[in-house]
Specification:
Oligomer: single chain
CATH topology: Jelly Rolls
CATH class: Mainly Beta
Helix content: under 10%
Low-confidence stretches: none
Structural class: mainly beta
Mean pLDDT: 82
Radius of gyration: 25 Å
Strand content: over 45%
Shape: elongated
CATH architecture: Sandwich
Amino acid sequence: MTNYKDDGCKEYYPHSRPRPRPKINQTILACGNGSGLIIPQHDQNDSQLFNPYVIASVAIDTSDLKKANVKVDFSSIITFREDDTDDLRLTFQLSKSYQFGNKIPLGTWTFERDFDDNDEFETTDSFSFTWCECDACPGCAYYTVELINVESEGVDFVAITSPSINALAVGPLDYDYEDY
């Protein structure tokens, strides 16, 4: 048995320091709900809705996390029927609010279908989007997806069904935060 010990690294690293403990990220998953919507016929080519329809919402509390990254996923099924060459355009808006705070618009997404056939048909499509942010203000946030614009002149029937929304937050615990 040998008592060999290589101390060659001491000249490069003369002061031994304990390694900092790695930060362990925590994950919070919140599943929201939605009710779906059959859009009333309004026979307008461009209709910015004064009272947007709420499609789905989710609440997530990130107050225990420091500098959390939040990801929101939304999906739905859109069914419509038309009998001429008109288009369908639906604009969805994702908004965020805190308790007793104003609603903050985060982004808009558009579902659009244009058909040139004069035949009557019914179609079903999926629609989804993902949105991410680095949450600078921890707390209980409410994310809401609303239908804010409908262009459906000539469309006989439009339904938004099976809406699903979830939020995922990832970050180190607030009390475990040292010079991160």
